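User: quick one, sequence for these tokens?
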């Protein structure tokens, strides 16, 4: 494997006052500005030995050190990673995804994903539906734990995809939110990318080509927070996180669509509790459930303790 390459230089007088990312992109023309920004986000750029933002202004005489990792392999690599398997047969695999695990490789997350784990479990020939996302029918956000179903052959993949497209799959989540919403309700909104931040989504748009629909009920109420059971009718990216935040009830632990406040959690407090579908071959009804993980159990216990005080 090609080793990491190191580049080290001192900011010159003509570069003084420039943004860190622009100075590097000009000095190292083989790196695009987007690539430089990616390296900065990954912590592979040091200004005077410390991390700095892409927009940081630099001064003459400051030293910039850059580590350029070797090119990522074209295909995800098999890895021996722990998987909590809820059910498995010749057509499907159902897992309880751990919080923090990314479902499929993406820039910044090329290893340690569910796909890497699947390749490690079934071998590098497991490429149902494509090498980058073998068997993946749907996904959960990195911070979300819970039930996720994977196809083990092409026929199962096609049939499950049809069920998701026709909204025949029933998905139930548990969410701990700031604030206490009405006892039950429906959020039915347009849905699209945020107009100013293309990495985020929003339901606060006048119109959008996509619709987002979910139903919820308050399962437990605490002092200033609540535990919700959420039925997801559509499967938009970040949907539960966005719609609840836009409605004024951001998830505890939410950083992208909320702000840090107490009570806190190391990740958005969202768990895919249950998934119900038809078996892709036999068409028999199936239901899979994943127990609430330890971190969310501990969060709920803390909230209950506050109420008792």
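Assistant:
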């Amino acid at each position: 494997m090609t080793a990491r390459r190191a580049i080290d230089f001192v900011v010159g007088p003509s570069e003084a006052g420039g943004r860190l990312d622009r100075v590097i992109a000009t000095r190292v023309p083989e790196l695009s500005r987007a690539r430089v920004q990616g390296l900065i986000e990954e912590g592979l750029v040091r200004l005077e030995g410390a991390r700095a933002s892409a927009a940081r202004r630099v001064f003459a005489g400051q030293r910039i050190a850059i580590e350029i990792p070797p090119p990522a392999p074209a295909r995800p690599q098999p890895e021996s990673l722990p998987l909590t398997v809820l059910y498995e047969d010749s057509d499907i695999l159902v897992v309880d995804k751990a919080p923090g695990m990314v479902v499929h490789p993406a820039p910044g997350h090329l290893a340690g994903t569910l796909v890497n784990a699947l390749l490690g479990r079934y071998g590098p020939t497991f490429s149902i539906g494509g090498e980058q996302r073998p068997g993946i029918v749907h996904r959960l956000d990195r911070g979300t734990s819970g039930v996720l179903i994977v196809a083990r052959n092409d026929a199962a993949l096609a049939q499950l995809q049809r069920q998701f497209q026709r909204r025949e799959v029933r998905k139930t989540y548990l969410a701990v939110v700031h604030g206490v919403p009405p006892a039950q309700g429906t959020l039915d909104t347009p849905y699209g990318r945020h107009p100013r931040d293309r990495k985020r989504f929003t339901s606060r748009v006048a119109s959008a080509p996509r619709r987002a629909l979910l139903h919820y009920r308050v399962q437990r109420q605490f002092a200033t927070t609540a535990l919700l059971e959420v039925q997801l009718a559509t499967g938009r990216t970040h949907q539960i996180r966005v719609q609840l935040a836009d409605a004024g009830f951001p998830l505890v632990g939410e950083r992208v669509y909320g702000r840090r406040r107490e009570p806190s959690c190391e990740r958005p407090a969202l768990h895919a509790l249950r998934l119900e579908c038809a078996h892709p071959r036999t068409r028999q009804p199936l239901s899979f459930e994943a127990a609430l993980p330890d971190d969310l159990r501990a969060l709920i216990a803390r909230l209950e303790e506050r109420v008792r005080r």
